[in-house]
Amino acid sequence: MGFSARVTDFAEKYFLALMAVLSLAVMLLNFHAGDMQGIVPYYDDFARVIRAGFRRPEGSGALPTFPMWGYGWLILLLRSKLLILFLQQALAVVAIAIFVRTVERSVILPRAGIRVLKLMLVLSLPWYALHSVFWPYSIAASLFVISLCLLVREAGEDGFVRRLILSAICFGMLLNFRSDFILFPPVCVAALLWWRWTSGIVLRRAIVWLVLVYAMLIPWSVYTQRAAGHFLLTSTNSGQVFFLGLGLLPHNRWGITPSDGDSVLRRIEATKIPPGETALTYRGNQVIKRETFARIREMPGEYAEKVIFSAWLTARSGFYPGSFYDAPGCEPKCGDVYATEKVEILHGRSPTETALLNPLRTVLQLASTLLSRVFLLLCIAALPVAGVLAWKTGSLLLALSVLAVVYHGAIGSFSYSLPGYTSNVFLFHLINFVVALIWLRGRSQAVTSAA
């Protein structure tokens, strides 16, 4: 056995341990990433509100209803960025273990396909990057994977429904961290009924699962009734997300930009939202939603163009590649220094070894960005093949995997898209790609043999 074969066998056998080590290394290298850190004060605020018994001192403002409070609970309980990042790493490893075991049991891949999947998982830098940042996407992505895998494993089995209940709890918990998948549970039920539409057991379990998922939002709903006077299932930023999503289309006729400081949004906030409210409170959110839909009705063709452009933007932007160039000593111009050194490297020159940025970080950033963009395009190309195979084979896992990718892509196209969002369904992109790759390889070998 050659050296490369021994390395491959080792990576396959110990893939989970290798992923845990590499994930920790990426976490340390990406520890100072500034992505989405502007929202952290909102989670800190939730932690203070929860600690105070869901009250604010008199005259200090209304109770928050944005963002979802899950990360605020983590900050309250762990009180340390490092501990929360370690928790994210541990949960990600658990998600990978359950994911691979589910794929093995589903028989959608032959032995060679499982081997390819494990090796690609070890090299999945975008997955490591997702869990290296102080943000709720990591927890939500892991819970999403665990929930769907447990749902697949238990849906058609007789006996006690422990995994089904745990799946619903995981999905309900992720909705307390992120609202992106609020409409996906009915999609899962539809997939279950397609998979075994004549089975009364599956129907009953699907209904129980759906009820339990949304029941996990009862505490949040009770809280929002106290905070805003309405029972809500999501946070109160949907209007702003959709509004700023219109700004993703360059030079759009609405004059909107995809920035929180957009002048059009702030003008509406100043003139049409009641005093004391913002675009992120309940009443302010309702105003922004009305303004968004009014603009879409006024220019439906412009919105259609925006949806198409957003879909293309999502495809070409890739997965979240990390922000390794964010390092102590270069804030707030780390990105500018990275851009300069990137050009030098691409032109074959030695990077300037400034004190602002370690050239190693520049090389790592370049490799990660290239990998994330190329791989997402390959995954999208493989999606139709995976969809057809899911239909032909009746694989519930593959069907849910395809549906998760399509659903998430639709959310990004119709509202707002960022690479960090796409990484939430990275593992489902990966399994779609590997299944399609192995099938195409088999077809190619069959054609070659026939010739």
Structural account:
With 451 residues, the chain is mainly alpha-helical. It has two domains: 3-236 and 318-450, no CATH class; 237-299, no CATH class. It is 69% helix and 0% strand. It is built from 21 helices and no strands. The protein has helices spanning 3-13, 15-29, 40-51, 70-78, 81-106, 111-122, 125-130, 137-154, 162-175, 184-195, 200-215, 218-228, 238-246, 263-271, 282-298, 300-317, 334-346, 359-393, 396-414, 419-422, 426-450. Helix 13 runs parallel beside helix 15 (282-298) and helix 19 (396-414) packs across helix 21. The radius of gyration is 23 Å and the shape is globular.
Summarize this, please?
With 451 residues, the chain is an all-alpha fold. The protein has 21 helices and no strands. The chain has two domains: 3-236 and 318-450, no CATH class; 237-299, no CATH class.
Protein traits:
69% helix; 2 domains; mainly alpha
Number of DSSP helical runs: 21
Q: Please tell me the overall pLDDT.
A: 90
| Rg measurement, Å | 23 Å
- According to DSSP, the number of beta strands is 0
Into how many domains do the coordinates divide? 2
Question: Structural class of the helices, strands and pairings?
Answer: mainly alpha
Q: Which percent bin holds the helix content?
A: 55-70%
**Uncertain spans:** none
How far apart are the first and last residues' alpha carbons, in Å? Answer: 32 Å
User: What is the N-to-C succession of helices and strands?
Assistant: HHHHHHHHHHHHHHHHHHHHH
Oligomer: single chain
Report the major sheet. Answer: none
**Overall body shape:** globular
In terms of DSSP E residues, the strand content is: under 5%
